[in-house]
Amino acid sequence: MSSRRPPVRLTPDQFRAVVSAVLRIGVVTAAVLTGAGFAMSLLVGWEGSLTGAPPATADPTDFSQLVAGLLALRPIAFAQAGLLVLLATPVLRVATSVVGFWLEADRLYVAITALVLAILLASIFLVR
Amino acid sequence: MTLGADVGIFLVSIAAGVVGALAGVGGGILIVPALTLLFGIDIRLAIGASIVSVIATSSGAAAAYVRDRLTDMRVGMFLELATTTGAVVGALLAAIVAPGLLYILLGMVLLGSAGMQVVRLGEEVPPDVEPSGLAARLRLVSSYPDARLGREVPYAARRVPLGFALMWGAGVVSGLLGIGSGALKVVAMDGAMRLPMKVSSATSNFMIGVTAAASAGIYLARGDVDPTLVAPVALGVLAGATLGARLLPRLSNRHVRWVFLPVLVVIGIQTLLRGLGVGL
To answer: B52: which chain A residues are within 8 Å (Cβ-Cβ)?
Structure first.
């Protein structure tokens, strides 16, 4: 531990409010996208499109048509987008915590949290 | 999937979200058997949906728990170091370790810790102790506002190395078996580190999303996550977890123990059965 401590720019309460907000925004965004997809599926079916594009032939677990599907207002694309936002939320929460501990001037926990983030990203993108 | 089935899955998922938020687990215990037994869904897709339900429970409940100071973020981040490194080791071991035996072992550990939970059923807050040097250096000493008791309850993590080792084991198990292992996390924090029950549950909830997110990529790539099935699950679990997170502050630690114990027993039995080849 260095004796020269960085200045505290975030109180513990502010830190909690930010982390809580990140989680809430992630969850609400995921719920809105998923809910929209579900509602649209009641109108045109999961394979359909609100713009009248021909039915999707891709497997619902195939995410490669996501952007095209969103533009064609396909229910399945909205459900997929909601799912991805939901899965990304914990990762964003850890990334936010790295910054939060930094601003709280807690170097030990900056190191711990950054290490967790690195391992998390590695296991998402490298372990197959 | 018919609309009726979707509504049914949505309702079961609400229940899973409430129980998961209160007990500090991901709700897979309700989701997987309900999807396979009631709705005839393939076990592979049911497990894919349960991974998503773990993340939904975690983020949905933790948004409230972090704000309400029930989640201890330092305890959570410190122990995530153990669970994430453990999970990587578990994933690497997966090719050489037979899962059957591991499920049986884990089932016995969970049922054994259920026995120890019974002893603590009447305990409201852990006895005061002088924090160890390690707990103080890691800042694992804090307090939480207990709305039920109407006061601030101080606590200090005990047996930090044991708790860290148990969490590492929980991480290995997650990596090997692809489960969130929330029950094992609560046991490590409540049983080994002697954190208050509500803090253990809320901090486990905070952590399980990260554990599940680490393995979610594998499930997505394998095609085990069907968004048309996951949509009603995610919406129901998010609603349930939000509800459960409003409930937890008003409950006593004893109440939470009464919710957690049956959950622990059911997870223990399910895990044992899976090891014996009975998929639930």
So the answer is: 83, 86-87
